[in-house]
Amino acid sequence: MKVGLFIPCYIDQFYPQVGIATLSLLEKLGCEVVYPQGQTCCGQPMANSGFEHLTAGCNELFVDHFQGFDYIVAPSGSCVLHIKDHLHVDHKEVAATHIRQRIYELSEFLTDVLKVENLPARFPHKVGIHQSCHGQRGLGLSQMSELVAAPFSKPQQLLQMVEGLELIDLKRTDECCGFGGTFCVFEEAVSVKMGKDRIADHVNNGAEYITGNDVSCLMHLEGILRRQHSHIKVLHIAEILNAGIN
Amino acid sequence: MEQKHKEHSVLAEAFNNNEPRVNWHDETLWWVRQKRDKMAWTLPEWEELREAASQIKHNVLGNLHDYLLAFEKNAIANGAVVHWAADAAEHNRIVLQLLQQQGVKRIVKSKSMLTEECHLNPYLAEHGIEVVDTDLGERIVQLAKEPPSHIVLPCIHKKKEEIGDLFHEHLGTPAGNADPKFLTAAARLHLRKEFIQSRVAITGVNFAVAETGEMVVCTNEGNADMGAHLADVHIACMGIEKIIPERKHLGVFLRLLARSATGQPITTYSSHFRKPKAGQQVHIVLVDNGRSRQLGREDFRNSLKCIRCGACMNTCPVYRRSGGHSYHNAIAGPIGSILAPNLDMKDYADLPFASTLCGSCSNVCPVKIDIHQQLYKWRQVLTKEGHTKKTKAAGMHAMNIVLSKPGLYKTAGGVGRWVMRTFPAVVNNGMNPWYKQREMPEAPKQSFADWYKKNRQ
Ligand code: SF4
What we know:
Chain A: This is (Fe-S)-binding protein. The complex is a heterodimer of chains A (246) and B (457). Chain A is of the alpha/beta class.
């Protein structure tokens, strides 16, 4: 199984450890992983700001880098959702379609494709899950609290395999953290307030770590936590699932 | 992008100056959202019910012309007079004319978001006619000289103490009394006088049944009924999208409406108005005001399915923390943000950006409007039409240039991180909205791409 690793731009630049954890986790689970060099970005920051028409360059680059893989995996729900919904290149539509159908966010790749049932990971801490909206409501990584439907959660399913890890319950299970792409700067006041409220929910329920499937949301929460001089840390789910695997 | 109003972000920031109040506003509306959840869960068929409602409205929008004519025909046969208004101005003129014919100077009106949209009250005031809003929440904001901040809970932004003060000032209740029961009783007495004296009553319409020509008006206070039953003339104002084909479809919509709105199984009063009683006149004003234009915009057509339950506002994490007035439109929140740009792109260009696109709104919507997807699509339209700030556009063009050229991206990323490590003040300053209340991420020495090159090749 040949897997193309997509490391979104802000992870590449600011959170390389998340890319490293993702790569090593996939390799340890037996995948042949290639990181196509020269990849940049899925184009989402522009598209969500109303500039989808400027993303042709990013799209073409993406198709060039990721055609020919059995699967494409990324440690980011929102970038994967963006590719699934919006990747089109006129003269390379067959390849673009293949990518749209074969791209997975890391957790769903582990639960749905690799069908992982146990992980030799250990992380003896109290952890709260931050459900990032694009992964949850967009990709369906977890059931949504608004719907009258049976609950499930792929990230939770994986974290429960981790030895010593205790998941905490939140008062609001899937409220948005307020990152929202360029929303975080253009609507700074509301964005930060949303982030503070999300953090308070984790704090009040005893979290030592906040984890999630989107580094963008975690970066926003981390920025607020550090400003508050909080002892709570954020970790991407790949870093926890990769902890202690030998 | 020059707007008549301050932008959402500016108004929202002002709202956030009082954090305890934001917390209170957020918690109050979240409580309503939870009541909605509980009620929805009492119906195992909830999701099918939403789908049915969405499909019925789909049919309505596809055949609106025929249903409207059928409704008109049946309403006339019932003895009502039907008026058509192309826009808000025509609607207001029609209502004014009817009131002038009656020679009245003061009338009662139950809740109608359409008349808010048309700014009927100030228009009538200019012509010497005073409107008394009889929905308690609307009366409160009217006394405060403010617009409603929520379509179902118009004064949700007001604390009970503030309402007590308003009543003291306007209705003569004792100073400092903020007991909701007491204040409601006082409002009741005050409104009763208005009901008895008013010869004309305006109501909104929740559903207009094409098959029978009847209108259904839902309230919890019975104020629409009090007004309409006691008046010689009942004027019902409705947007043309309020049509449903048959009476039996009410079985779907009435079950959804109150559960979604306030977590009640049904509104206290769901009143059917079909034939005028002896000696009474009933006028129905059917208003377009941009609706047929929205119907023609395929991407945004579904927004006309809205039954104005307010659930998308209650669940919206941005609305709860920015307040209804920050949307500077009669209809606030997620649905307001996709309806408003249809009325005036320039004036409301900020609203589709006042969202994180989290998608919670689309999930609670009882008629399954793809609200957050329409917000995304409006962003594309507004940008192409040139309603985006120049600085933002320049930034996006620069981003495009960097991100579509791997070499440039690598250099820019490396330089950026080096600058952040070496001269943190370049990014950590007051010009950077991220830094105002958040630390910047720490810039690592090497990117993932650098690491990969060293370790895997
Ligand atoms: S858009 Fe949907 S949720 Fe929002 S008010 Fe309309 S019907 Fe209710």
